[in-house]
């Protein structure tokens, strides 16, 4: 599933292209993704409006329109957005086509776990999928005091805590593992047991890992083929230090990287470097 850096990569691509384009039509070829696409609302409200801005909240994209309303998008596990494809380049899993006065934007999702929704009012942050999200990792609110308060007495493994969007938005399996390695913290440590010093290291490490991943255009793995708007993969997979490297030597100490399962998710760490 695309995580914060991949979604931010897509947002940065969209913001360079879409603002000012006017919707002409909406074509829906497959109505059922994670939930049913609100076809009638999109066809009613989009034509004639122009794209005003594109924001990100956690792993969600929000496309704001000139006369009000917001398109909410989630890429799911396999979704990609494709800008201005050739007219004859239509694939089986191109489920939704936004037609503009100049070009189009397609939502392609082979596994159909993505989501498209319409928010009619001016308060998209109150949408049920967004209202419960915690702060962004780079938000000043996500600080030492916040983490100590929210994780107080929690017995959940710290990796699971980081991946819970109610505490911090947008962090998934890859970047939780990488941040914990950078901070020298075992992923199975109870979140409530981390010291103030460890939280400081972890907050700093998480922000640093996410920043580098965004600069590298996200992570594209063989089993999760993330692509940007132009069909190009990310490059952060070449900088992964533990994720997906079970049995390989640790980049810091040469001991083998270990793999365990936490909450049903593959988790990678170095027993020598992470305590």
Can you describe what's shown?
α1 (4-15) packs across α7 (196-215) and α6 packs across α7 (196-215). The two termini are 28 Å apart. The protein has 7 helices and 10 strands. The longest helix is centred in the C-terminal third of the chain and has 20 residues, at 196-215. The chain has helices at 4-15, 39-45, 128-131, 144-151, 158-162, 173-183, 196-215, and strands at 23-28, 51-57, 60-65, 70-74, 80-83, 94-100, 104-108, 115-119, 258-262, 265-269. β9 (258-262) and β10 (265-269) form a beta hairpin. The protein has 275 residues and is of the alpha+beta class. Strands 1-6-7-5 form a 4-stranded antiparallel β-sheet, covered by helices on one side. It has a 4-stranded antiparallel β-sheet with strand order 2-3-4-8, with helices on one face. It folds into 2 domains: 4-131, MutM-like, N-terminal (N-terminal domain of MutM-like DNA repair proteins), CATH 3.20.190; 144-269, Helicase, Ruva Protein, domain 3 (Orthogonal Bundle).
What portion of residues is helical? 10-25%
* Helix-strand topology string: HEHEEEEEEEHHHHHEE
Low-confidence stretches: none
CATH superfamily of the largest domain: MutM-like, N-terminal
Per the principal axes of the C-alpha atoms, what is the gross shape?
globular
Distance between the termini: 28 Å
Strand content: 15-25%
How are the SSEs ordered, and which strands pair?
Layout: H1 4-15, E1 23-28, H2 39-45, E2 51-57, E3 60-65, E4 70-74, E5 80-83, E6 94-100, E7 104-108, E8 115-119, H3 128-131, H4 144-151, H5 158-162, H6 173-183, H7 196-215, E9 258-262, E10 265-269
Helix pairs in contact: 1-7, 6-7
């Amino acid at each position: 599933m695309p995580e914060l850096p991949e979604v931010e990569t897509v947002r940065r691509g969209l913001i360079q292209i879409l603002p000012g384009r006017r919707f002409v039509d909406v074509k829906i070829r497959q109505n059922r993704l994670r939930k049913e696409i609100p076809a009638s609302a999109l066809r009613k409200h989009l034509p004639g409006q122009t794209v005003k801005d594109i924001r990100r909240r956690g792993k969600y994209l929000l496309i704001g329109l000139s006369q009000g309303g917001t398109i909410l998008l989630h890429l799911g596990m396999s979704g990609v957005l494709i800008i201005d494809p050739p007219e004859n380049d239509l694939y089986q899993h191109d489920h939704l086509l936004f037609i503009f006065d100049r070009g189009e934007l397609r939502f392609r999702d082979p596994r159909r776990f993505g989501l498209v929704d319409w928010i009619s009012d001016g308060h998209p942050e109150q949408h049920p999928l967004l209202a419960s999200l915690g702060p962004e990792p780079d938000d000043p609110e996500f600080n030492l005091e916040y983490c100590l308060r929210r994780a107080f007495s929690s017995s959940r493994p710290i990796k699971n805590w980081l991946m819970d969007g109610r505490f911090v938005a947008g962090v998934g399996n890859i970047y939780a593992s990488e941040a914990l390695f950078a901070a020298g913290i075992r992923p199975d440590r109870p979140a409530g047991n981390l010291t103030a010093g460890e939280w400081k290291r972890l907050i700093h490490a998480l922000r640093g890992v996410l920043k580098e991943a965004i600069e590298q255009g996200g992570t594209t793995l063989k089993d999760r083929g993330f692509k940007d708007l132009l069909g190009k993969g990310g490059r952060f997979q070449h900088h992964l230090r533990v994720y997906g490297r079970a049995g390989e030597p640790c980049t810091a100490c040469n001991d083998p990287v270990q793999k365990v399962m936490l909450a049903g998710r593959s988790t990678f760490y170095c027993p020598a470097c992470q305590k």
